[in-house]
Amino acid sequence: xxxxxxxxxxxxxxxxxxxxxxxxxxxxxxxxxxxxxxxxxxxxxxxxxxxxxxxxxxxxxxxxxxxxxxxxxxxxxxxxxxxxxxxxxxxxxxxxxxxxxxxxxxxxxxxxxxxxxxxxxxxxxxxxxxxxxxxxxxxxxxxxxxxxxxxxxxxxxxxxxxxxxxxxxxxxxxxxxxxxxxxxxxxxxxxxxxxxxxxxxxxxxxxxxxxxxxxxxxxxxxxx
Length: 224
Fold this sequence. Notes:
The protein has 224 residues and is of the alpha+beta class.
């Protein structure tokens, strides 16, 4: 399992193909799996690998919140297509704050120097913990946007939806889903900051394009 060498053109092509029908490396919300793969890429993928580039730019927006994303970061070879060998080398040398030795010497009689060192490390540990940024509450929302009929220009409809810009709103992947009688609905994903963007606001602004949009429904809503 793996993507191969993600610093090479071949590895990026494997990643692009993998993301052709996926929004994230694992599951339906950003996670530590995305961060592990993102950090293995040397630079943004080229424009012709648009699935990989779309994913790269989306995950880049989580730079300040990456430590708070769900999941446990695993070796790079644990992600990706099963039939591709990982050649990037797994594991990192990074140390977590929780790895700090808080107890110093194991001797029964602790020397003054060891005691002082232990107290300094405790103070450093508490200081780092207190400075960690507050977690921003986010949600991943899957929207169903329905047109009036089978003659509606769905490319224009999607263009209208993506034209909606707001602080705390990031549009993701989309697809057209048949609903019957030749009519297709737009299914589009977005990630929002809960304090800034709500479903009521999205519905109001999307249905404002009344020449194209008949209605909007929330198909899935997941807290991140």
